[in-house]
Each structure stands twice: as C-alpha cells, then as structure tokens.
Automatic annotation (TrEMBL):
Entry's localization field: Cell membrane
Domain spans labelled VTT: 37-169
Pfam family, one: VTT_dom
Name of protein: DedA family protein
Topology of the protein relative to the lipid bilayer: Multi-pass membrane protein
Taxonomic path: Bacteria, Bacillati, Actinomycetota, Actinomycetes, Streptosporangiales
Protein origin, superkingdom: Bacteria
Stated family: Belongs to the DedA family.
The keyword Transmembrane belongs to this UniProt entry's keyword annotation: yes
Amino acid sequence: MDFLHPEYWLGLFGAFAAIGVLVIIFAETGLLFGCILPGDSLLFTAGILTSVNQIGDTEFEKISLPVLLIGGPIAAIAGAQLGHWIGAKYGRKLFDRPDSRIFKKEWVEKAEHYFNRFGPEKAVVIARFVPIVRTFLNPLAGMLGMDAKRFLIWNTIGGIIWTDSLFLLGHWLGNKVPNIDKYIIPGVVVILIISVVPIILEMRKGRKAVK
C-alpha cells in the first residue's frame, strides 16, 4: 500500500511535487475518496523537502516553501468549501451507502460526533487535525445546515493553521535535525497526539458540565 506513504506521492509527482501536494490537500478535504490519501504525513514530509532534497537513500525535487505556505491553505479552504457545498446539495443520501473498501459509515458517525459534541465552529477547526474526520466533517456541516459564510470563516482559520504549521515544522526540522527521515513517522505521531489533547480536554470539560 505504497499510496499511503508520502514518499510515494512526492516521488510520483517529481518536479511537480508542490502542485501534487496541493492537489492531494484539495482532494482529501473536498472529496469523499480523499479519506484514503495521506494528510499530516504528506504535509510534514513536504515541509522537510523545502529544506533538503534527500530522504534516506532517495533523492527528491526540492519544494518551494512560499508556494506551500500560500497554496496549501488555499487548497485546503477550497476543498473544504466544495465538501460543504456537496453536503448542502445532496444531503443525508450522500452518506447512506453500504460499507466498502474506501467508505465506512462509522467514519461519518465519528465526524457527526465531533460536529455535535464541540459545536460547528470548534469542530471545523479541530477536524483539520483528525484524519478521516477532516474529510467527512465538511460535507456533514453542509448537510446539517451550517451557513456557508460562517463555515468559510472557521474553515479559513483551520485551513491556515493546519497546513502552514505542518509545513513550517517540517521545514524547521529539516534544517535542524540530521537524518530527518528517521523521524518522519514519530513526528507525525507526536503531531496527532498534540492534536488530540484539546479534544480530550473539551470532552472532560463536557463531562464535568453534565455532572
């Protein structure tokens, strides 16, 4: 399953790696099949390749950091807005399909849980850092009637924070840490843990409120 590894995509796109990264960001946030594409790991690795052009024994095309910092948020915001529009237009029937290899109803239920648990605004931002949820929450927000303009505001905030923070982290570590390729997977794990912390705190606060 090489397509789950960011190195596969970055090598596949070659000299057009920056464009490829933006396309995947758009697809992962705007199209339902995008849930199977790499997200955090791709952004982090792309950020590393703005500093170095080699990961392990493999050489890659160096990527422009300004292109990622500008294009990344635009792709993420545009993709999420498309997802919202799809959800608003097609509604619940969009999600009422049997499980398949690339679609699980539990993923939709998980996204709906975040939306209802944290409220629309927080959910749109938090979902950016949760794999799979960031794909399904956008059309779900449209389906549940979240206003497009209000969605755009929080979508913009979440899109900028998600993409640029991972690009900059990868860029900084690529400059500072020798043999950075050894730390790609641990780095992504740390990012995911940090992303989950505010969710756990919010859930604990909610339990206290119920008590």
